[in-house]
Write a structure and sequence with these properties.
Blueprint: H1 3-17, E1 23-29, E2 35-41, H2 48-66
Antiparallel strand pairs: 1-2
């Protein structure tokens, strides 16, 4: 897995666990000029300590599962 794939998966998981945090919905033009709904995740304003706690929880749960 490449680094950006890992980050993307973790962001999706974070968003799912925290009521859609960071999800932005947009409308774009499709290939034929039609309006297409799309979405992306924006984590610019996420505080480092919240992200670190989330990652630590994943690690802690993984260690517990391995015991």
């Amino acid at each position: 897995m490449r680094f950006n794939q890992l980050i993307s998966i973790l962001q999706q998981r974070y968003s799912a666990e925290y009521e859609g945090y960071g999800q932005r919905k947009v409308k774009e033009k499709g290939l034929l000029g039609e309006e297409v709904e799309s979405s992306y995740l924006e984590f610019f304003f996420l505080e480092d300590e919240n992200w670190e706690e989330f990652l630590q929880r994943i690690i802690d749960n993984r260690v517990k599962d391995d015991e």
